[in-house]
Amino acid sequence: MEESLAAVMRTAVARAEQARGRTSPNPPVGAVVLDADGQVAGLGETQPPGGPHAEVVALRAAGERARGGTAVVTLEPCAHFGRTPPCTAALLDAGVARVVYAVSDPHAAAAGGAKVLADAGVAVTGGLLAEEVARGPLRAWLHHIRTGRPHVTWKYAATLDGRVAAADGTSRWISSAVSRAEVHDLRRKVDAIMVGRGTVLADDPALTARAEDGTPAPRQPLRVVVGHGDLPAGAKVLDDAAETLRARTHDPAEVLTELAARGVVDVLLEGGPTLAGAFAEAGAIDRVLAYVAPVLLGAGPVALGASGVSTITGAHKFAVEEVTMCGPDVRISAVPSRNQRN
User: Fold this and answer.
1) How confident is the model at residue 214 (pLDDT cuts 50, 70, 90)?
2) How far apart are CA 275 and CA 265, in angstroms?
3) Is Hydrolase a UniProt keyword of this protein (predicted)?
4) What domains does the chain contain, in order, with CATH numbers?
5) Is 140 labelled a binding residue?
6) Which of 144, 241, 240 is nearest to 187 (CA)?
7) Theoretical Cys-Cys bridge with 195: which of 67, 182, 184, 199, CB 3.0 to 4.6 Å?
């Protein structure tokens, strides 16, 4: 039974992934409701702020089939009144007999849903695939709750010898079409994409999420340009394809404070070596996503600029959590070593 519930939980995770980029500052949650016979009766994911939570969407889809059934949710159902009523009330009203969730809710105001349900006679099980969910759709939100600031993923593409461009400045394309398509899918799921003013001047990026044929994604992340000084009037980041924030500072903490005030939870840092170095020095890189292409250049700029390290013992240490082939490229995901985490 637990093996089949794990499969159902992974379906809920897939629904949560669909919600990413649309729910902040709320968490992207997925839910599956099974009827009393164990058959899928309803699916749901968190709607934009003010809309129903994942459990409510799934319960509405299930209707009367939810009675006596099981709700499988990626996050412990909330037990508080916010913009919407508590999900625990919806589950009790629907008559579900069992609730299985992955991650306990760390938010002080929303926690306690498991106890509310158990006290009402519902069988409650927590922790199913908790680590997988915490490293997946809930990664950024959990970090935000723990630290009070957005989660920052530094994404870059480089050659085998660590170059992000050739000596003449050309960089299109170091990574493969497969990698680039994956990055555009990631852009669609984050709240903001960040670069420095220098990157805008050098590359004039659009910083939008697009399909392979160039079609813009329905929802675009906030574009953030860090640094003093004006931008060229015709810069792509100033068009109306998406909102752009000018963060006129070089202090990562100030940038993240402003983004947090805007409800931004998940940030993709795509800036050049200088901005990446500043964030590394500030201890503000929470994940590195490196796309390494099987190419050698021998000259040209490297991925990371000065970051406050002068000796090997002072290096910023990371733990590799995943290595995956991405077309001909290798994608490496790494997070700060435990003794360096904020």
Assistant:
1) confident
2) 19
3) yes
4) 2-139 (3.40.140.10), 150-340 (3.40.430.10)
5) no
6) 241
7) 199
